[in-house]
Amino acid sequence: MTEFVRAGSLNGYDELARKLGANPVQLQRAIGLPTSQLRDPDNLIPYEKLGQLLELTARETGTETFGLRLGMSQGLRVLGLFGAYMSRQDSVTSALAVGSKHTHLHAQGAILTLNPTERAETALKLDILVAQHGRFPQLMALSIALIYQLIRDMAGHQWHSSRVLFRHPPPEKGKDFYQQAFACPVEFNAEHDGFFIDRETLAKKPRTLEGLVNEIIFSQFEQLKTDPDSDLTPLVKHAILGLLPTGDCSKTNVALCLGMHPKKLQRALESSQTSFRSLLEETRKEVAKTAVFKSSMPLTSIALNLGYADLAVFSRSFRRWFGIPPSTAEGRRPS
What is the pLDDT of residues 139-169, one digit of tens each? Predict the structure, then answer.
C-alpha cells in the first residue's frame, strides 16, 4: 500500500537546496517526482518519494543535517488551515490531541502518540511506516523538527524540550548542530523517535500566529488577493475539505480556522448568495464523485473521509446526488 504526504512537507525545500549548491528541480526529477505536483501544498505525493528526495539531497549537498534544517524552518504554516485550526484549541494538549487524531490529513502512515510520564512531562513519540528500520533518517529528522517547531509556534520560541530522541545513529558531521537546533540534549540510537514536553507548556493556550490565515489565503488563493472579503467561497470550501475527515467540520470550526466569528462567516456567505450547508454539500459531492468513480478506495474509507458516521448515510447522499448507490457506480474500480 502506498502512503501519501502533503506536498507542503517540502515547504522551503527549493530555497535550502539552492543555498547549499544543489539544483532542486534536477533532484526531484532524479527520483521521479514531477515539480508540477509540488506547486499546491495540498497535493499528495508518495511518502516514499519524499524520503528518497531528502536522502538524495543530503548526499548531493554533503549536508547530513539537511532534513533537520528543513524541518526547523517550518511550523504551523506548513499544515495550512488545519494548522490554524490546531492553534485555536483551548490548550497545547488539545491542539496536539487534534493533530495526533488526524495526522493522516498531513501524512498517511505517520502515527503520533502522547504518553504521560512520572516526571511531570509527556513523551511524544512518532512512528512513520516508510521510515521503519532506519530507512530514511533525513525524513525522520524533518518530521521531528517540524513537530518541535509546531510546539514552539504554539508555546513560544523560548520553549525547548528536556531531551530529543532519534533511533538512527548520530551523523558523522553535524551532531553538535542537532543540539544547537533543539537547544537541549539529543540522544541517538534510542528506542524510539520523539521528545518530551513539560506539563506546564501543555496546559498553555496556544499562541495564534499573526497573519497566519491571511498568509494561507494569499499563498493558495490568488483570486482573493485584491479583496479577501469579496468572496470567501473558495476559501471556505478549502477549509471544509481539510476538516471533513476530522468529523468536526462545523460552521463554527471553519470560522475558527479562518479567524472570524461564525456570524460574520454566515453574513459573508449570504452576500455571496450561498450558505455553509450548501458549500458542505457541494464539497462532499465533488470529492465523492472523484473518489468513487476514479479510485479504488474502499467505500467505508470514503464515507469516513467525508465526515459521515457510517457507509449507509453516505450511500443515501450518493444516491441523491447521482441516482445510483456508490457500490454500483459505473467505472467503479474494485476495492
Answer: 999 999 999 999 999 999 999 999 999 999 9
192-213 tens-digit pLDDT:
999 999 999 999 999 876 666 5
Pairing of strands 4-6, 193-198: unpaired
Determine how many CB atoms are found less than 10 A away from the CB of residue 322: 16
- Are 149 and 72 in contact, with CB atoms under 8 Å apart? yes
Q: Do residues 48 and 32 make contact, with C-beta atoms less than 8 angstroms apart?
A: no
In order of 35, 168, 181, 203, 310, the CA distances from 129 in angstroms are 24, 15, 25, 30, 27
C-alpha cell at 334: 474494485
Q: Which CATH class is domain 4-202?
A: alpha beta
CATH number assigned to the domain with residue range 278-328, chosen from the 4 options 1.10.1740.10, 3.40.50.300, 1.10.10.60, 3.30.930.10:
1.10.10.60
